[in-house]
Amino acid sequence: MLSSTARRLGRPAAALLGAAVIALGSGLAHGQAKEQFIPANFYWVGPYASGGSGIAGGFIDYFKMVNARDGGVNGVKITWEKCETEYNNARGVECYERSKNKGPTGASLIHPLSTGITYSLIDKGTADKIPIVSLGYGRADATIGSVFPYVFPLMTTYWSQAAAMVNFLGQREGGLAKLKGKKIVLLYHESAYGKEPIPVLTDLSKKYGYQLTTIAVPHPGNEQQSQWLQIRQIRPDWVILWGWGVMNPTALKAAQKTGFPRNKILGVWWSGAEEDVIPAGSAAKGYMAAGFNAPGTSYPAIQDILKYVYAKGDGEMEDKSRVGSIYYNRGVVLAAVSVEAIKVAQEHFGKGKPVTGEQVAWGLEHLNLDEKRLKQLGLSGFMPPTTTACNNHEGSGLVKFQQWDGTKWKILTANWVAPTPEDQKLVRSKMEASAAKYAKDKGITPRANCTDEN
Amino acid sequence: MQFFFEVLIGGLLAGIMYSLVALGFVLIYKASGVFNFAQGAMVFFAALTVVGFMEQGAPLPLAIGLCLIVMILLGVATERIVLRPLVNQPQITLFMATIGLAFFVEGLAQGLWGAQVHALDIGIPDTPIESLMDKTGMLISQFDLIAALICAVLVTLLAVFFNKTRIGRALRAVADDHQAALAVGIPLKQIWAIVWAVAGFVALVAGLLWGARNGVQFALTFVALKALPVLILGGFESIAGAIVGGLIVGSSEKLAEVFLGPYVGGGIEGWFAYVVALLFLLVRPQGLFGEKIIERV
Amino acid sequence: MLYRETGQFKTSYAADQQIFPLRQDRIGVVATLLVAFIVVPLVANEYWLEAILIPFLVFSLAALGLNILTGYAGQLSLGTAAFMAVGAFGAYNFELRLEWMPILGSFALGGVCAAFVGILFGLPSLRIKGFYLAVATLAAQFFVVWALTHFNWFSNYSASGVITAQRIEIFGFYFLTGQSKYLLVLAIVTLLALAAKNMVRSETGRAWMAVRDFDVAAAVIGIPVMRTKLLAFAVSSFYCGVAGALYAYAYLGTVEPDGFNLDLSFRILFMIIIGGVGSILGSFLGAAFIVLFPILLNRFAEPFANAIGIDLPSGMSSNLELIIFGGLIIFFLAVEPLGLARLWQVAKEKLRLWPFPH
C-alpha cells in the first residue's frame, strides 16, 4: 500500500511527505475512498522467512490480480500494507495494533500466520471486532463460533487433519479395520503446535486399535539421531511427522540414515512444502504430506495472476518460478477466502461499499465456497469446498495428500479426504468440550442462536 | 547391547559436528577474549554464499574458494570496523558488539542471496555403510564418518598452525597477555584479523558439513546453540577441550534421550547437555582443559 | 547552571538519605511520573498504549530485574525469559486454583515462584562466573520451557500447553481497556523501580556491588558471598517473574511456553547492555531502544527508500532493517560502550556548567 501510494505520487518529496503522514498512523490520507484494507502482517526475515515470503507473495499477488482484473470487489479496491512480524509475538501484536485502524473501515480481517501471534490476538480481535483468520493453524476449538465469534480456523484444523490422516492411512492399508495392531509413531515438534494432535490420535488409537508412540523433538530439531534410532527400534508401520522449519528436512535425512522408508512417513501441512524437502535432497523422495491447497500453476486463478500481475512486471515474487509452489499457493488460498468473505459481506450489507470487520465476520460465517463457486473463482480442486456457519468456523475439514517425487509435489488423492463422519463427530465433541472450558475460564457466555447450519 | 553401541557411536559422530562449531568460538575467544555470538550467523553466511556461487554456475571447489575469500574479507572487516574501536572495553560490550554483528550478517546473508532454502550436495552420500551393516547390523552413516575425518584433519591443521608456525606462536602470545605481546613487537591488529579470518574458515567448513546434512537455511544459525554446552564443558580456550567436550555432549545427550527420555516423556535432549555441563562444573570448575588463570570463583 | 547542586544543603539525615537527594532530580522524576500517569493516558491512543507503552514497561521491568543481577551483582544470565515464564505460569496457577486470591497477590506469588527457581539455577554461580555462568543459565532457559510444555498440570491440562490469562479484576473493577492496563502496569513498574533504586544503595546493594567488583575482597571484609549472590538471583528473578506475569496478563492475554524462548532472553540482555549495565535508568532506555527501534525502522525504511527513488524488492526492506539495526548497535557501542545511561550522565555533566562551560 505504501509503495503504491508513493509511486502514484511520483515526486520524491511528495512521496516522502505522503509516506510520513501515513506512517504516523493518521489514516487521514485515505479519506473516504472506496477501499477495503487488509493487513499483510507476515515475515520476510528469520528462520521461517522462506515460508513467510512465499505466503505473503501469493496473498498480495491475488489482491493485485483481483484489483487489475475485476477492479476490486464490486468496485471496492483492496488495499494492503506490509508489516514485518519476525514470527515474534510482540512484533505481531504491534503490527496488529498498527494496522487495525487503517483504511476507511479499519482492518477487514487479519491473518497472523503464526500460532503464537494468533493466541495473542484472540482477545484483542474479539474486543476490536476484527476477525482473526488462522487458516490451518491456531486453536482448533475456535471452530465453535458461539464462544469464539471473531476467530476463524477456516477450512481445516489440526484436529480434523489428524483424523483425516488416520483415515488416509486406513485407506493405504486397505481399510480402517486393517489399522488394528499397526504401529504408528508421531514425531512432533516439542511445542504447543506439535502437541496439538496427541489427544485426537490417542483417542483414535483406542478406537482403531493401532499402537501409538509419541516422540518429541526439541526445538529447533536440527539433530534427530536419537529419535530416529528409537523409531528404528519400534519398527513402526507409519511415522506421522508434525514438524516445523529445519526439523522437517532433518527428519527425512535422519530417516534415510537409519534406513526408514520415506514413503512410510506422512507429514502435516506445515511439513509439506518445497522448503521442507529440497534441503533433504534425494532423501525426501517418496515422502508424503497433507495439504489444504494444491501445488502448480495450472489453475485459472493462478493463470490470471500470471497474466494480470506478472506480465506487467508487478509481481511480489522476485523469483517467478516460486509462483505455484506450495507456500505461494497457500497465500492465494488465504487471499481468496478473504476476498470471498468481503464479497459475501458486501452482498448482505450493501454492494460497492467498504465493509467493517464486524460485517466481514458475518461474511466469514456465511461462506459458501461450494464446488460451483470455486469453479467460478478458477480455484476448483485447488482448495477444499468450504461452507461455514455461526457455530462452524471450520467449514470443511478436508485435505489432500501429496507425494514428493524428487522434483515436485504430486497429488496422491484426486478427491479431498475428510475424517470419517464418526471421527468428525468425535473431533467436534472434543472441540466443544475445549471451547466450553475456555468459556468457563474466561467468563464468556456463548452466543445464543448460534447453530451449525445457517 | 548392539543398540547401545549404535546410539553411542551416533552420538559421538554427532558430537564431532558440535565440536566443529565450537572450534570457531574457541579460536576467537582464545586470541581476543571475545565471546563471538556471530559464529552461528557466520556459519549460515558461509554456507549460503557457497550455494549462491554454485547457483551462479561455479563448480563446488571454485565456490568454496570464492567463499573463503569472502569469509576472510568479512573477518578482516570485522576486526577493522567492530573490534578496533572497542579495544580495552569490558568483555560484555564486545559480546554485545558481536550480537550486532550477528544481526548484520543475518540480514546481509538473506538480503544478498534471498530467503529460500537450498540443498547442498558436496558429493558424500548420507547413507548407512552397507558392509558394516551386513557384518554388525549397525547403521553408521558414511557422511558422519567423513565429517569426523574432516574434523580431525582440521584440528590437526589448527594444532600445527598454533604450535609450529610463527603466526601461531604470536597468537598464543597475544592470548596470554595483550600488553606483553605488544611490548615484544607482535602486531596485535594483524593477529586479530588473522584469527577472525581463520574463524571464518572454520565457519565455512562447519557450514559446508551442516549445510550438506540439514540443508542450507536460516536454521544453520541455531547450530551455535549445540556448541555452547560443549564450550562450558571443554573450556572456552582449549581446542582439545572443544573436541573432547563435543564427544561427551554428543554421546551423553543421545544416550539420555534414548534411555532416560521415555521415562519422562522425551524431548530432554534440548537441556540435558547443559545440565551435564553444569554438574561437571560444580565438581571441576575449570572444565576439562581450562586454564587456571581464567575467571572462575 | 541548569543542573547545579550547589546551594542545596541538607540539614537532617533523612533529607540526606532520600532516594533523589538533588532537587533537579526530584523535579525530573515527579514531572516524568506526572506525564506518565496523567498526560500519557489522556493523549495516547490505543495503538501507543497497547502496542508500544505496555510492552515497553513490561520489558523495562524484566530488564531491571536482569540489571540487578548482571549490572549490580555481576552475574551474567541468559535465563531471563525462563524466569518470566515461571512468573506467568505461577500467577496463572495461583489465580486458577485459589479462588480467593486477589490478582495482585497472584502476580507477587508468581514472582516468588520465579525467585525460588532463580535461587535454584543461581547455585552454579557459587562455583563459576562470567560467560561460563551465562551459558550455564541456559540450562534454566531450556529446562523451564521444556517442563512447562511437558507437564500439563502447569497449563491446567490444555491440550497444547497454552494458558489464557484470567481477566484482571481489582475490587470489582475490570482492567480491560488499554488505558486501565497501562496505568496498572505503570503503577507496578514505578513501585518496583523505586524499590530497586532504593535497594541498590542500601546495604544489600552495596554488598552486591562489592561482590561484583572483587568477590574475594568482599569475602574478606565479611560480606557473605554465597548469600549475597543467591539474594541477587532471588530478587532479580522476582522482578522478572512479575514482568512475566504482566507480559501474560496485561499484554498478550494468551501465552505458550514457547513464547518465553531464548530469543526473548537475549532481547532483554541487549536492553541492559545498550541501556547501560548497572543503571536503573539504563534498563528503561535500553528497553525503549530495543522495543521502539525495529518498529521505527519498519515504518520508515520502505517509505524512505521509495522517496529517494529505490524500489525495494519484497523482503529486502526487512533484511535491510536487520542490517541497519545490527550496524547501529555496533555504532552505538563504538560511540558509547557503557550504554545510553552513560550518555545521560555525560549530558548531566554538561548541563552542570552550561551555558558557561569555563
What is the overall shape of chain C?
globular
Return the average pLDDT of chain A rounded to an integer. 88
Rg of chain C over CA atoms, rounded to whole Å, is 21 Å
Write down how many β-strands of chain A occur, each being a DSSP E stretch of 2 or more residues: 13
Please give the count of helices of chain A.
Answer: 16
Largest interface: A-C, 64 and 55 residues
Count of folded domains of chain C: 1
> Main beta sheet of chain C: strand number and arrangement?
2 strands, antiparallel
Oligomer: heterotrimer
Q: Can you give the helix content of chain A as a percent range? A: 40-55%
CATH topology of chain C: ABC transporter involved in vitamin B12 uptake, BtuC
Number of domains of chain A: 3
Give the distance, in angstroms, between the N- and C-terminal Cα atoms of chain A. 36 Å
CATH superfamily heading of the largest domain in chain A: Response regulator
> How much of the residues of chain C is beta strand, in percent?
under 5%
| Portion of residues within helices of chain C | over 70%
CATH class bucket of chain C: Mainly Alpha
In CATH, the topology of the largest domain in chain A is named Rossmann fold
Order of strands across the biggest sheet of chain C? 1-4
The number of E-state strands of chain C comes to: 4
CATH architectural arrangement of the largest domain in chain A:
3-Layer(aba) Sandwich
Walkthrough of the structure:
The complex is a heterotrimer of chains A (454), B (297) and C (358). In chain A, 43% of the residues lie in helices and 13% in strands. Chain A has 454 residues and is α/β, with parallel strands linked by helices. The longest helix of chain A is centred in the C-terminal third of the chain and has 24 residues, at 326-349. Chain A starts with a helix and ends in a 12-residue tail after the last helix. Chain B is mainly α and 297 residues long. Chain B has 12 helices and no strands. Residues 293-297 of chain B have low confidence and may be disordered. Chain C is built from 14 helices and 4 strands. Chain C has helices at 13-16, 23-43, 46-72, 80-97, 103-122, 131-150, 178-200, 203-213, 215-220, 225-252, 262-275, 280-307, 316-335, 340-353, and strands spanning 163-164, 169-170, 173-174, 254-255. In chain C, helix 2 (23-43) packs antiparallel against helix 7. Chain C is globular, with a radius of gyration of 21 Å. Classes of the chains: A alpha/beta (454), B mainly alpha (297), C mainly alpha (358).
